[in-house]
Amino acid sequence: MSPRLTSLSSFLLDLSGSIATPDVKLNLGGDFIKETTATTFLRQRGYGWLLEVEDDDPEDNKPLLEELDIDLKDIYYKIRCVLMPMPSLGFNRQVVRDNPDFWGPLAVVLFFSMISLYGQFRVVSWIITIWIFGSLTIFLLARVLGGEVAYGQVLGVIGYSLLPLIVIAPVLLVVGSFEVVSTLIKLFGVFWAAYSAASLLVGEEFKTKKPLLIYPIFLLYIYFLSLYTGV
C-alpha cells in the first residue's frame, strides 16, 4: 500500500471515534444521580431554578390546632372555672379574664345557638350579635366606671359564662311541663351565669359602683335565655 493511502486510512480511523457523553451529576439530598437530557437542557437555558427543591421548614409542619392558636387544655380549664365559680374549689378563675381567647367562647356561643334553634334559624345570628354587641356595651360601661379591662377579655368572659345556660337546657326539656320548677331552674341558670361573669369582670376597682355593672350583665343573660326559650 502506498504511503498516501496509509496516511488517509489513519486519518479516517481518527474520525471514526465516538464522542463520550459528559457525566454531569446532580446532588439531591446527598445522593448523586446523572442528570437527564431535559434537566441538562433546562440548566443550559437558564431555567435551572425550576429544578430546585426547598428544604422543609419545621415551622410549616405545625398541627392545625397550633396554627389556629387553639389550646384545648386551656379551654377545658376555663370551662371548669366558669361552671364551678366557687373560690373554695381552688381554681385560678382569673385566667378566664387575664388570658382571653376567641375560639373557646365562640364554640360555647355557637353551641348555645344550636340548642336554641327549634326551627328558627335566625336565632343563631341574633345570639352571636347579642354576644358581640352586648359584650361591647359591658366593656364601654366598665371603662366609663374606671375598670381596667379590654374588650377581648369581656368577650371571652361573656361567651364562656353562657355555659350554665347550656347546662340547664336539657333540664328544662324534662321539667318544661312544670311551670314553677321550670321558672326556678331558669332563674338559677341566669344567676349562675351572671355570677360567674360578674365575679370575673367586676373587680375591686369598681368599689361602690359594682351594681351598675352587675345589673346589665344579669339583664344580658336574661335576654340570652329568652332567645333560647322563645319568650
UniProtKB/TrEMBL annotation:
Assigned GO CC terms: endoplasmic reticulum; Golgi membrane; plasma membrane; trans-Golgi network
Localization (cell): Golgi apparatus membrane; Golgi apparatus, cis-Golgi network membrane
BP term (GO), one: vesicle fusion with Golgi apparatus
Keyword Kinase attached: no
Short name of one Pfam family: Yip1
Chain ranges passing through the membrane: 102-119, 125-145, 157-178, 184-203, 212-230
Occurrences of domain Yip1 (ranges): 91-226
Keywords associated with the record: Golgi apparatus, Membrane, Transmembrane, Transmembrane helix
Protein topology in the membrane: Multi-pass membrane protein
InterPro entries according to UniProt: Yip1/4-like, Yip1_dom
PANTHER family listed in its UniProt record: GOLGI MEMBRANE PROTEIN YIP1, PROTEIN YIPF4
Family statement: Belongs to the YIP1 family.
Function (record text): Involved in the maintenance of the Golgi structure.
Protein name: Protein YIPF
Protein source organism: Jaculus jaculus
